[in-house]
Design a protein that fits this description.
The complex is a heterodimer of chains A (99) and B (780).
Chain A lengths: L2 H21 L3 H26 L3 H31 L13
Helix pairs in contact in A: 1-2, 2-3
Chain B lengths: L1 H9 L7 H4 L3 H16 L8 H28 L9 E10 L2 E9 L1 H24 L6 H19 L4 H19 L6 H40 L6 H8 L6 H18 L8 H4 L5 H9 L3 H10 L1 H7 L9 H17 L5 H21 L3 H28 L7 H4 L8 H15 L5 H15 L3 H26 L13 H11 L11 H8 L8 H16 L14 H5 L7 E7 L5 E7 L32 H26 L9 H4 L1 H11 L4 H74 L7 H23 L1
Antiparallel strand pairs in B: 1-2, 3-4
The chains are: A mainly alpha (99), B mainly alpha (780).
């Protein structure tokens, strides 16, 4: 089994996700990037589960999908509220947390 | 066989009863009542006074029950059998090998005094309901009064000296509280302090005496009676056992007698008693008749064997007690002549009568002296309450006879009658109660070989009759004066009376103004709550003497049968019958010629003595007639002089003390109370206190302050160095530097807190990457 290819795919998706989170200014795109990161983690989990012949990884992957769905729901809700208040969803405009 | 039969006959067990066994409840009831009055008294409908009256009433019932059962007990004994006291004791606390007990010692003497105390206390509390109505510290007054009686009752039935001391001190404290009841006036609080401190001087003697007796007697009592050296029973037996060293027991007796001098107002510590008049009149009455001052006399009567042996009472001639008693009788009676304050006349009269009791005890006339406690309590309480009645209803709270009284016999018939009865009893007129006790004392003092003191006693009787006549004349006869004349300006009289006499002992009530309104109708008879106690007391003042009426023969001498401990040698077998109780079987020793006991005169051979053999003078009508004649002479002379002097009808007498120098000097000496107060306050206290104070000041200034200054200076220098080097450099330096460091670190880290989300994410991921890298490096 070509474990390396799967792991490589996971790593590439992770890097794309990280790039998206760091570089993108749009909040929705940031959320999408987070989803990509989560899915790269899922690929990793499934790869190791197949390789070790256990179902643990599958169960974890299912959990992560459920958590990701919930997280996106909350995240999109936040983005909507921010948009309603600020008329923008650019992350750079939301710098009230500056110390 | 015959001997055995007679022995089993005398072995007849002594009767006892519930009241005798539970006599310890008598002081417990007032103690509980005191706590209740203090806690909830103010919320009760009668402000706690009902608790006080009720507790004294139940104590009285218990005491009377115990008295009745004691009489049965003495009747159940045979003629020559020792009537063992009903003793119960419990261990109170143990400390370092000392076992302090608590318990009751019930015999004729304690029962007699218990009944008197409970009875007088009950009447005084009832009287106070009216007398102190509306007082600002009504509840506290009743609380203190109840505790006062409780202390006396506890002291009277104490079975050991520690409990005795406890009761003694409770009374000292309560007398302080009660004398200073109206402490807002300076004179009152001063009098309270004086009473407390003067008695305190004597109390040192009590402590010394108790501890001496303990260490001297403990071994003997443990060995022979299984009692501690504090036990009154043990000490009595030890004193008569012939064991004690005569010097030790003599010093112990003197130490104890010093306590009695302080408490019973004997010369030279009598000065506190007249000042104690500052308290409310019911307090004076209680204090002077049955509690407090009787405590000293009671101590002598209680531990009589110690004094009997220690001071060689059967020796005759003179000893400390009779000398002090004799001096007290005469000097205080002389002082009573120059007093204008009616309560002070009575106070000096009490001192004088206490002198009689001491004289009797000192001369071996135990029974007459104890009987005099009994009769004196009734007539003196009656006289004091009578004086209170006058001030309450007639003289507008003044006690000044010359200024505010006179001619009161018409407006206050009840008070007048009771006063006259009690006065006759006090003077010792036949057949009033005082005659049977006082005359017996004088008679027995002479019979026991103290002839000089018998004469002093007769002189005292003459003076008693004279000063009481003077007081009676000034109060009830002649023209009404001042407040009792119903003058409209009695308010002013009252005030000038205050400023005029610094020791003014008038009873100021908070309901003063209410009384003013009432008083505008002039003097009148007091209410029932006041007159009923007076009448009860006057009946007893007349009749109580018949309980030991020696003139009418042996069958009338009840007190001798009931109260006097029988001086019989007894063999004891002690069986412990359970915790806290011991059954004592007494076996009189069959001896020939038993009529004369060896107790008190020689060492008992086989048994133990509890009471010395005392003589009783046979009554002779001739001697009684002589003392009667002296009394009537006193009354007559005093009456004539009073009439002439106070109506100013004879110019030869008016101003006599101003014209005749010697008389003037004598008068001045008496008015100044022999300068004893001056001696105590100005000379003794000053000569001790001032040098001590000066020495203390010098010590303070030069040594203590020098030390302190030196210490302070070196401390300052050290602390200055510490401040500069340790505090500023090390401690503050550390703190400051760490703060600076934190601040610069914070400033350095500030740019990372940009508020830019992507930057945070970058940091997070780079941190995660670094962590991952570290993980990889560690694992490979």
């Amino acid at each position: 089994m070509f474990v390396n290819q799967f792991l490589l795919l996971g790593a590439i998706l992770f890097c794309i996700g990280v790039y998206g989170v760091v570089a993108r200014k749009n909040a929705v795109l940031m959320l999408m990037s987070i989803e990509i990161i989560l899915n790269s983690v899922n690929i990793n989990l499934l790869t190791f589960a197949l390789r070790n012949g256990s179902t643990d990884g599958h169960v974890f992957a299912l959990y992560i999908i459920a958590v990701a769905a919930a997280e996106v729901g909350v995240g999109l809700g936040l983005v909507l509220l921010v948009y309603r208040n600020k008329k923008t969803i650019s992350i750079d405009d939301l710098s009230e947390m500056r110390g | 066989m015959n001997l055995l039969a007679s022995e089993s006959e005398v072995l007849a067990p002594l009767a006892s009863g519930w009241f005798l066994e539970h006599a310890w409840l008598i002081p417990v009831i007032p103690a509980i009542a005191f706590a209740l009055i203090i806690l909830i008294g103010k919320r009760l409908p009668m402000k706690g006074s009902e608790l006080g009256v009720l507790s004294m009433l139940s104590s009285l019932v218990f005491a009377l029950g115990a008295g009745y059962q004691w009489i049965q007990r003495t009747n159940s004994a045979t003629e020559e059998q020792f009537v063992a006291p009903v003793i119960k004791s419990w261990s109170w606390w143990r400390s370092g090998g000392f076992d302090f007990g608590i318990g009751q010692h019930i015999d004729g003497l304690s029962i007699l005094v218990l009944i008197v105390v409970a009875f007088i206390s009950t009447l005084v509390q009832i009287y106070s309901l009216e007398y102190l109505r509306g007082d600002r510290r009504y509840t506290h007054f009743f609380a203190a009064l109840t505790l006062f009686s409780g202390g006396m009752l506890a002291m009277v039935l104490a079975d050991n000296m520690i409990l005795f001391l406890l009761g003694w001190e409770i009374m000292g404290l309560c007398s302080f509280m009660l004398i200073g009841h109206w402490w807002e006036e300076d004179a009152n609080s001063r009098a309270a302090l004086k009473a407390f401190f003067t008695v305190r001087i004597g109390d040192v003697g009590l402590l010394v005496g108790i501890s001496m007796l303990y260490f001297a007697a403990n071994d003997w009592t443990q060995e022979n009676l299984e009692l501690s050296g504090f036990s009154i029973r043990g000490i009595s037996a030890w004193a008569l056992s012939g064991e004690p060293n005569s010097t030790v027991i003599m010093i112990a007796a003197v130490a104890l007698f010093i306590a009695c001098i302080g408490k019973s107002g004997q010369f030279p510590l009598h000065t506190w008693l007249p000042d104690a008049m500052a308290g409310p009149t019911p307090v004076s009455s209680l204090l002077h008749s049955s509690t407090m001052v009787v405590a000293g006399v009671y101590l002598v009567a209680r531990l009589y064997p110690v004094f009997y042996v220690g001071l060689d009472i059967p020796g005759g001639g003179g000893n400390l007690i009779v000398i002090i008693g004799g001096i007290t009788i005469v000097i205080s009676a002389a002082l009573a002549f120059v007093q204008n304050d009616i309560k002070r006349v009575l106070a000096y009269s009490t001192v004088s009568q206490l002198g009689y009791m001491m004289l009797g005890l000192g001369a071996g006339a135990w029974l007459p002296a104890v009987f005099h406690i009994f009769t004196h309590a009734f007539f003196k309480a009656c006289l004091f309450l009578g004086a209170g009645s006058i001030s309450h209803s007639a003289s507008h709270h003044s006690f000044d006879m010359k200024r505010d009284m006179g001619g009161l016999r018409k407006v206050m018939p009840l008070t007048f009658t009771t006063w006259i009865i009690s006065t006759l009893a006090l003077c010792g007129v036949f057949p009033f109660s005082g005659f049977f006790s006082k005359d017996e004392i004088i008679d027995n003092v002479g019979y026991n070989g103290y002839n000089l003191f018998m004469i002093i006693g007769l002189v005292g009787a003459f003076m008693t009759a004279a000063y009481m006549t003077r007081a009676t004349y000034l109060t009830f006869f002649g023209e009404p004066r001042g407040a009792s004349a119903g003058h409209a300006d009695h308010g002013d009289t009252h005030d000038t009376h205050d400023s005029h006499n610094s020791h003014a002992s008038h009873d100021a009530h908070s309901s003063h103004n209410a009384h003013d309104v009432e008083q505008s109708h002039g003097p009148h008879e007091s209410g029932l709550l006041i007159t009923v106690p007076l009448m009860i007391l006057s009946v007893l003042a007349f009749s109580s003497g018949f309980l030991n009426a020696t003139p009418f023969g042996e069958s009338w001498e009840r007190m001798k049968l009931w109260v006097e401990p029988r001086s019989v040698e007894v063999v004891e077998e002690t069986h412990s019958g359970g915790p806290g109780e011991s059954l004592i079987i007494t076996l009189p020793i069959a001896k020939e010629g038993q009529s004369k006991s060896v107790c008190g005169s020689a060492q008992p051979e086989t048994g133990i003595c509890y009471a010395p053999q005392l003589n009783h003078a046979p009554f002779k009508w001739l001697k009684a007639m002589m003392s009667m004649a002296i009394v009537f002479l006193g009354i007559a002379i005093s009456w004539i002089l009073s009439t002439l002097l106070f109506t100013k009808s004879d110019p030869r007498l008016v101003g006599l003390t101003q014209r005749v120098k010697i008389l003037g000097l004598g008068h001045k000496l008496l008015v100044n109370k022999y300068y004893l107060d001056v001696l105590y306050e100005k000379v003794i206290v000053r000569s001790i206190a001032y040098p001590v104070a000066r020495a203390a000041y010098w010590f303070n200034q030069n040594i203590l302050d020098g030390l302190l200054h030196g210490l302070a200076n070196s401390t300052r220098r050290i602390s200055g160095w510490v401040y500069k080097n340790v505090d500023q450099l090390v401690v503050d330096g550390t703190v400051n530097n760490s703060a600076t460091l934190t601040k610069s670190l914070g400033t350095a880290a500030q740019p990372t807190q940009s508020g830019k989300l992507s930057q945070y994410a970058a940091l997070l991921f780079s941190a995660a990457a670094v962590a991952a890298l570290v993980l990889v490096i560690i694992n490979t």
